[in-house]
Amino acid sequence: MAAPVPVDPNRPQGHARRLLELLHALGNEAPAAPMEKARWCLLDALGCGLFGAHQPWGEIMAAEVLADGAQGACSILGTAHATAPAQAALCNGTAIHGFELDDLLSEAVIHPGAVIIPAALAAAQACAASGEQLLRGIVAGYEATARISMALGMEASQRGFHKTSVVGPVAGAIAASVTTKLSLEQMVSAVGLACSCGSGIKNFAAGSGGMVKRMHAGRAAEAAVRMTLLAQRGFTAPPAAIDGTYGLLDAFSGSKAQPQRLDAAWGEKWAIDDVWVKVYPICGWIQGVVQLLTAMRSQGSFTAADVEKIVVATSAFAVKNNANADVRDTMDAQYSIPYCAAVALVGNPMNPEEFAAPRLFDAELKRIAQRVELETDRIADQVYPRQFASRVELRLKDGRTLSKSTLDPHGTPADPCSVDEQIGKFRNLARLSGLTKDLSDAIDIVRTLESRQVSELMRALR
């Protein structure tokens, strides 16, 4: 048996403890600006969840959960079913993360909504929380997601861990704890328990990814809720599990961790202000490429048949990890710069059906994808991951070269989607999910959620 690690009872308060105290205080009062952002993050996640619930992975997960027979009042999105809190979080997290449409925190390189929203939502339904308390939980969860991810740095990701499912259980437990109004010490225990649940590898990005990435957010949300409920019952955990010896930061990032980022510059800006609302159902690194090609195509000065070569210049990370032109499944397509470029030139990249069979095997798309050449762009490398820059050149058969570049794709904080665009995205995804009812009531409830009950919102989505 290994010798216990010595503990200094006089050790100064750590960065993580201060962060938890600050986040816990948001449960009593959160500023108006991040609360306003939180409501639209919630609506965006709900739209993603309604659509993702009817994808094969969403349906399989719901069937598995319902087969368990767990009883509870927590809604499974896209269905009329209810189940226990952790099981609902599992289904809804899988659904929200189900088609690469859920939001990102750009510099932190992590998906917050697919974990925070289902965890906070399940906690809210389990304790009949108010809409206002749900929004507070979301604000706290997004803040925790960003700060813990930034403290981890890029080491864990570069070693093959998926930060959404490493950080997600911890940040989700904070969101659920704030929503449930746990005491500070109960929340510390929930976080300590959740730190032992961080996991998830990125083998899905190596080709033929299957369905596993969709589940990463669901499992993180499930763990977040389960650990919160255990802490509420009195199950305890190490109080320094984030930044202590052998804690989350130490285990995943070692000497490259930056624990000072956990509580640095508190209140100067809010993480939820850094949210990137996705326009296309594809990997974040590729959003700018598709946006540029779509804009060039709309000018009408060429057709796909005129294109001899497509040069995409972007970060070295994207060139290394998103170059596969021979796609086999939906995940492959959503992570392939060549395939997405082809869709942008001859299809509708906003349509999820472009990234599913039988479209994946379209001969014209395959031909165009083979004409895509990737190269590293110096500027894109310099600004990554704060920004996702890209440059596109179309070399035409008549000798012309058309070029366009962006530092900030639409939907990012520098070029954000409007509220009307977010509402439009929600309505479209709900329609694609097969939901035929008018969702104006649900949208109105989200607009006025501080004075409404979460149960009203969930009824309006059925």
Radius of gyration: 22 Å
Question: So how many helices?
Answer: 20
End-to-end gap: 53 Å
User: How many DSSP-defined strands?
Assistant: 8
Strand content: 5-15%
- What's the overall geometry? globular
Estimated structural class: alpha+beta
* Order of strands, widest sheet: 6-5-7-8
Give a short account of the largest sheet: 4 strands, mixed
**What is the N-to-C order of secondary-structure elements (H for helix, E for strand)?**
HHHEEHEHHHHHHHEHEHHHHEHEEHHH
Relative helix content: 40-55%
Q: What is the mean pLDDT?
A: 95
pLDDT < 50 runs, ≥5 residues: 1-12
Can you give a write-up of this model?
This protein has 462 residues and is of the alpha+beta class. It has 20 helices and 8 strands. The radius of gyration is 22 Å and the shape is globular. The N and C termini lie far apart (53 Å).
